[in-house]
């Protein structure tokens, strides 16, 4: 409104840095860390496209003037303030980066909130098949998948639960077949 630019870096690169940083923090199961470790995360994920000096300037701008990262004097670490915001930013990386194996993330409680946000506006029914193929069943991912279905749009929940239950039935039938084949092999 006043045509005052407080930041020197473009909004696009600052957004990319924030998303990448949040995803890396999620990947490392941390809510807060040192500024040096944050810079290391940015360099690790974005150095193919940006120089370290630029990433350091972006990190500083995410702290001030953007106020996206907050310093906690008690722990002497930086965070996104509210963990849900970190999860939201990590979700944006999940949506844009097809190289991330979401099937692996469904096994971990740490990712449940992020995947719940992902489910709100992303088609994920393919995950049932992907998880079934990679893990042999849905057992380890069951809680997360149920959480994702409950966070999906109301209009899609019935269909997702139907599909989910069919895969769970397959799990049950596979268990019966495996048990019966073991039973016969003992004769």
As residue ranges, the low-confidence spans are: none
Major sheet: order of its strands? Answer: 1-3-2
What class would the helix/strand composition place it in?
Answer: mainly alpha
Main sheet characteristics = 3 strands, antiparallel
DSSP strand tally: 3
Taken from the alpha-carbon principal axes, the silhouette is: elongated
Number of helices: 9
**Which oligomeric state applies?**
single chain
User: What is the gyration radius calculated from CA atoms?
Assistant: 21 Å
Percentage of β-strand residues: under 5%
Estimated helix fraction: 55-70%
Mean pLDDT: 90
Order of helices and strands: HEHHEEHHHHHH
Record keyword descriptors for this entry.
187 residues; mainly alpha; three-stranded antiparallel β-sheet; 9 helices
């Amino acid at each position: 409104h006043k045509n005052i630019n407080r930041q020197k870096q473009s909004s696009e690169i600052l957004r990319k840095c924030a998303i990448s940083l949040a995803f890396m923090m999620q990947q490392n199961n941390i809510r807060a860390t040192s500024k040096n470790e944050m810079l290391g995360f940015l360099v690790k994920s974005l150095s193919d496209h940006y120089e370290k000096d630029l990433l350091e300037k972006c990190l500083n701008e995410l702290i001030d003037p953007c106020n996206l990262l907050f310093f906690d004097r008690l722990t002497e670490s930086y965070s996104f303030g509210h963990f849900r915001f970190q999860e939201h930013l990590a979700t944006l990386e999940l949506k844009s980066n097809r190289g991330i194996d979401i099937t692996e993330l469904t096994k971990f409680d740490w990712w449940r909130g992020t995947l719940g946000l992902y489910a709100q506006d992303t088609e994920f029914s393919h995950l049932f098949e992907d998880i079934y193929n990679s893990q042999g069943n849905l057992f380890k991912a069951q809680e997360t998948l149920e959480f994702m279905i409950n966070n999906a749009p109301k209009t899609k929940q019935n269909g997702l639960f139907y599909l989910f239950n069919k895969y769970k039935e397959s799990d049950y039938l596979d268990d019966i077949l495996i048990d019966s084949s073991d039973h016969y092999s003992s004769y």
